[in-house]
Amino acid sequence: MAEFFDKVRAIVFDKGTKTSKIEKLQSELGCTVYEAQTFYRQLQPFIITATRPASGLLRFTIGVEIECFNIDKEAVKRAIEARGLKAYTTGYNHNDSKEYYKLGHDGSIGGNNACEVVSPILKNLSSLKEVCEVINEAGAQVNKTCGLHVHFGASKFSLNDWLKIIANYAAIEPIIDSFMPISRRGNNNTYCASIIDSARRIKERIDSGSEFAPTSLSDIQDIFGTRYKKLNVMAYRTHKTIEFRQHSGTTDFEKIENWVSFLTYFLDWSIKHDETITASTIEDLPFLPQSLKTYYNNRKSELCA
Questions:
Q1: What gap in Å lies between CA 273 and CA 271, rounded to an integer?
Q2: 3-state SS of 229-281?
Q3: Over its length of 305 residues, how does the chain's per-residue pLDDT go in tens digits?
Q4: Which 8-state DSSP code applies to residue 105?
Q5: How far apart (Å, rounded) are the C-alpha atoms in residues 8 and 40?
Q6: Does the pTM of the predicted model rise above 0.85?
Q7: Using CA of residue 66, residue 68, residue 73, residue 76, what is the dihedral sign?
Q8: Cβ proximity of 131 and 119 under 8 Å
Q9: CA 53, CA 50: separation in Å to the nearest integer?
Q10: Could you tell me if 245 and 149 are in contact, meaning their C-beta atoms sit under 8 angstroms apart?
């Protein structure tokens, strides 16, 4: 029996997605679907992976917005509070909080009982994991109208930091597109349009020595012109953050955690390096650990299947 559980732990603690591990528990150890899911759920909190930056999540404060539908906001509020967390229900607003989870409304979300679950300002994702459990237990669903938005505190970014981050995201946007649903690629979505053209115009103005070359974040914001981009520079005006809007809607904590990790590594690398990323595949990305490369290569394969 001890040998069996050693094999269970080896599979759950190995690299790969939740789905691949559950399938492996079934095929290699003969577990039922229920047994495999139970083993994964019990061991998942103890998984130590390279996808969780040891210091990165402490370097940036984080805010996460989960768009979903089919939940009773008041019931979810009570369930969140039952876990010792703070929450409140509201309409549509851009208010920030350091303590409360906000259960708000967003008219762009299609589906009955729509809700935008907005985290407080976070330094780690432990409470968000609990909130994901709550909304999933409440029957939360997502569709093409839903997105996952992630904010990072940007009050210490210099103009050069902003320019490098924008140039790098534009450079790898086609790679990111490859592991996103079709509705989140290119200019397919009104609420998260490509930044490639905006980045190109910024570069052209700088390279030409134009008098219109950006000398402040406000100049960059003027070039972007809207917050509805995959990378939202307008968020700084309201929240003092940089916002990433490209990810599709999800209530799956593993997907959220991995995307936050991807962005954390991306921001950290962009700020520390002057050169623009020249990668053309996920494997080429210089900032990403192998575990996340494997995860997103698997996501790409699943979306292309």
A1: 6
A2: ECEECCHHHHHCEEEECCCECCCCHHHHHHHHHHHHHHHHHHHHCCCCCCCCC
A3: 657 766 887 788 776 677 888 888 899 889 898 888 888 777 765 543 333 443 443 378 999 999 999 999 999 999 999 999 999 998 776 677 789 999 998 888 998 999 999 999 998 899 999 999 999 999 999 999 999 999 999 999 999 999 999 999 999 999 999 999 999 999 999 999 999 999 999 999 999 888 889 999 999 999 999 999 999 999 999 999 999 999 999 999 999 999 999 999 999 999 999 999 999 999 999 999 999 999 999 999 998 86
A4: -
A5: 9
A6: no
A7: negative
A8: yes
A9: 7
A10: yes
Q: Which two tokens stand for residue 45?
A: 């909190």
Q: What angle do CA 27, 30, 31 make, to 5 degrees?
A: 105
How far apart CA 25 and CA 12 sit, in angstroms, is 8
